[in-house]
Structure formats: structure tokens, C-alpha cells
Automatic annotation (TrEMBL):
Chain ranges of the ABC transporter domain: 5-245
Gene3D superfamilies: P-loop containing nucleotide triphosphate hydrolases
Protein name: ABC transporter ATP-binding protein
GO molecular-function term, one example from the UniProt record: ATP hydrolysis activity
PROSITE patterns tied to this protein: ABC_TRANSPORTER_2 (PS50893)
Organism of provenance: Alsobacter soli
UniProt superkingdom: Bacteria
Matches recorded under SUPFAM superfamilies: P-loop containing nucleoside triphosphate hydrolases (SSF52540)
Signal sequence coordinates: none
Keywords: ATP-binding, Nucleotide-binding
Length: 249
């Protein structure tokens, strides 16, 4: 598999805190890469760099082998990178279709006045949900009426609707009950089947071993190891997370 995204020597400091101390990371086309590490290891900071939410202090980012400068979320979007943060950033009092299209609504101008193309939004939303095998009664349901798992799938649906290449998921199963966790894991597998590359932050090793192809372990702002799922064990991953072992020098 070829490298879709590559980070080289990425650094980020928050004052005296060295959150990223020179990270090299590769994301291949069509893989699920798990980003793993203890609290404070630098996972959120790293995905914020990739998604343009923060600008790193140093290092390079390459997309399909070309250097790119991602300084704002719009820059990441233009490359086809979408991120679902833990807070999901959904609008509770809006319906599913409005959430899927938030900020990118199709409009039609009549005598210079913009009108939302509602029917089109709902039809397209239903198509997106059905492609992702997300079963929700109606795209007119308000987000506040949905379960936690459905909210997560709507947030992922929104990312996928506009991402062409990479979806970044920040602990998508953390706040969910077991049946809903299963649905989200299935969705991650579907994304991979659909040709997306996925970066998955999770603290749940069982989930990680079920859906990821490779694992990038961070520890205190550095890479502790990069592992292929088929060539490692949960025990080894725990040793890397805790610092009992290191595979990168
Ligand atoms: N805005 C900020 N200002 C100052 N320090 C920060 C800020 N954001 C993160 N840090 C620090 O940077 C380091 C890396 O934090 P980061 O949130 O990236 O870790 P994480 O691996 O995502 O942790 P968690 O699993 O707890 O979310 C930590 O020491 C954290 O306290």
C-alpha cells in the first residue's frame, strides 16, 4: 500500500510543554491506523496538526508524496481530510439532514434570494446514511432525539459525506454502550472497505485489535513504536504505552 499521508519530524510546544517531539507518521491508502497512547501522550495534538486545527512548530507534511501546508481546517478539507472530534459538534435542535450539510447547504437563488434546497438535502442525506448502512428512521429526526450511537454515526456520516480520502475519529466508541460500539466499529470497517484511510484514536485495545491494520503508539510526545496488527499482541502494545518497551530509538 502506498503512503497517502506522511508526517516528518513534527514538533509542537505549548509553552514549556513539549507535546510532540519530532513525530514521523505514515498513513497508507485504505488502511485503518490506530493512534494509541496514555493520557497526555500527544494523540489529540497530532490529529489537530493533521486536521489544521493547530499549526505545528516544526516538521513537514506530505500528501501523496507532495509537501502540503495545512494551516487551517479548510486546508485539510481541501485535501479530503475530515475529523470527528469527541464533542461531535452537532446541532441538537437541527435535523439530521441539516447536520450532514451544516455549513455546506445546497442553495438555489430566486431573484437573488438564496433558498435552501431542502428536498435535495434530505434525499442526499438518506443516500449517505444508506450507503453507510446507518439505519435511522428519517433524515427529519432532530439530533437531540437520537441515541449516543446514532449521534456518533451522524457525525461520522457528515465527515464521510465531504471527505474524499481520510477520516479521523477521536475515541468514537468512548461514550457508547456495547451494542452501539459494535455499530461504530462496523462503520469503521465499512469506511476502510469504501477506500477511505482512517486514523482512529482509542483507548480500547480490543477495539483496536479488531479494526486496525497498523498501530502508532505515542508516549510523552514521541513515537514508542509502529506495529502491524498481525505481528503484535495486546501485551506488547501495553508495554509500549507504559514505556516498559520501545521500538523506536
Ligand atoms: N492547549 C494546551 N495548552 C497547554 N498544554 C496543552 C494543550 N493541549 C495539550 N497540552 C499538553 O500537551 C500534552 C499532550 O496532550 P494531548 O491532549 O495531545 O494528549 P492526548 O494523548 O490526546 O491525551 P488524552 O488521551 O488525555 O486526550 C499534554 O501534556 C497536555 O497537557
Amino acid at each position: 500500500m502506498s503512503n497517502l499521508l506522511e508526517l516528518q519530524g513534527v514538533t509542537k510546544n505549548y509553552g514549556a510543554v513539549r507535546a510532540l517531539k519530532g513525530i514521523d507518521l505514515t498513513l497508507r491508502a485504505g488502511e485503518v491506523l490506530a493512534l494509541i497512547g496514555d493520557n497526555g501522550a500527544g494523540k489529540s495534538t497530532l490529529i489537530k496538526v493533521i486536521s489544521g486545527a493547530i499549526v505545528p512548530d516544526g516538521g513537514r507534511m506530505l500528501f501523496e508524496g507532495r509537501e502540503v501546508h495545512v494551516r487551517r481546517p479548510e486546508d485539510a478539507r481541501a485535501l479530503g481530510i475530515e475529523t470527528v472530534y469527541q464533542d461531535l459538534a452537532l446541532f441538537d435542535n437541527s435535523d439530521i439532514a441539516e447536520n450532514l450539510f451544516a455549513g455546506r447547504e445546497p442553495v438555489r437563488h430566486i431573484l437573488g434570494v438564496p433558498f435552501l434546497r431542502r428536498a435535495e438535502m434530505h434525499a442526499e442525506s438518506a443516500r449517505i446514511l444508506s450507503t453507510l448502512k446507518i439505519h435511522i428512521r428519517s433524515t427529519k429526526a432532530l439530533v437531540k432525539e437520537l441515541s449516543g450511537g446514532q449521534r456518533q454515526t451522524v457525525a461520522i456520516g457528515r465527515a464521510v459525506a465531504f471527505s474524499q480520502r481520510i477520516v479521523i475519529l477521536d475515541e468514537p466508541t468512548a461514550a457508547l454502550g456495547v451494542p452501539e460500539q459494535e455499530k461504530v466499529l462496523e462503520l469503521v470497517q465499512q469506511l476502510r472497505g469504501g477506500g477511505y484511510s482512517v486514523v482512529l484514536i482509542s483507548h480500547n485495545l480490543e477495539h483496536i485489535f479488531r479494526v486496525s491494520d497498523r498501530m502508532h503508539v505515542l508516549r510523552q510526545g514521541e513515537t514508542a513504536g509502529v506495529l502491524s496488527r498481525s505481528a503484535t499482541t495486546p501485551e506488547e502494545v501495553v508495554q509500549l504505552i507504559t514505556g516498559a518497551k520501545r521500538l523506536v530509538h
